[in-house]
Every structure is written in structure tokens, then in C-alpha cells.
Sequence to fold (135 residues):
Amino acid sequence: MKDNNCIFCRIANGEIPSATLYEDDEFRVILDLNPAAKGHSLILPKNHYANLFELPEETASKAICVAKKISEKLYTGLHAAGLNLVQNNGEVAGQTVFHFHMHLIPRYENDSAGLSWNPGTLTDADKAEILDLFE
Ligand code: AMP
Ligand code: ZN
Fold:
């Protein structure tokens, strides 16, 4: 299902032109307009899902296969030293466009992508609470 008010729906379905690296029946892969590093690309499903929680399992499985294929080509072709797969869900997690997408970010020595977090400490209380969820 497409949402006409969603910019990524319109890009994914070809209504708004984009620098497209790959397209099939279900996905379009485009270059990010504000790349964190050279080759930063976005995998967009053609159907509208706001986030990972709305994404059907079958689409999720296919998305990771597309990610692998395009990542390998970017990594090799751009002589990258590494690559981050990033996927944000919710404003608090940094999501700014509420149409599921995966970031492919090739990494280079001394680049300025700056993807990091402050490592915390796993407390016994948190560990017990979380392990309980999976009992
Ligand atoms: P996120 O913060 O995970 O929601 O990522 C949204 C990404 O979409 C950002 O990296 C933006 O630079 C990128 N972006 C937003 N609008 C466009 C557009 N029209 N074409 C390409 N990339 C876009
Ligand atoms: Zn959409």
C-alpha cells in the first residue's frame, strides 16, 4: 500500500526522480541526499510501512538480501574499509522519515560519519527483566 503524502513512497514508486542504484518489484535503492560518507544509500520498500514493527517478515527477509547484494557492490567498488547497516525506528532513535528504510553506509579510514554510542553497564536488574521477556 502506498501513501501519497509520504516522500519515500513517491520516490520508491518513481513519482519523484532519485539516483537509483537498484530496483525490483518490491524495492528501490537510492543515494542519500545528505550522505554520512561516500556511497551512503537507502533501501526503500515500494509499499508503505512506517517502521520495522510494521514490516512483514517476508519483506524483511528480502530487504536483508538486497542489503547484502548492494553493500557488497558499494564496499568493493568504492574501496571502502567497512560498512554500517543502520535502521532507525522512532523519533527518539533518530528516524526522520517515517517510511521503513535501511541505511547502507560505506566506511573509510578517518571518515567523519561518526556513528557511535556511549557504552553503559548491563545491570543485574536490567538483565533479569530482559531475560524474563524471552522465557
Ligand atoms: P532516518 O533519519 O533514518 O529517517 O533517515 C532519513 C534519511 O533520508 C536521511 O539520511 C536523509 O538524508 C535522507 N533523505 C531525506 N529525504 C531524501 C530524499 N528526498 N532523497 C534522498 N534521501 C533523502
Ligand atoms: Zn511511504
User: Anything to note?
Assistant: Strands lie at 20-23, 27-31, 41-45, 82-86, 102-107. The radius of gyration is 17 Å. The CA atoms of residues 49 and 55 lie 6 Å apart.
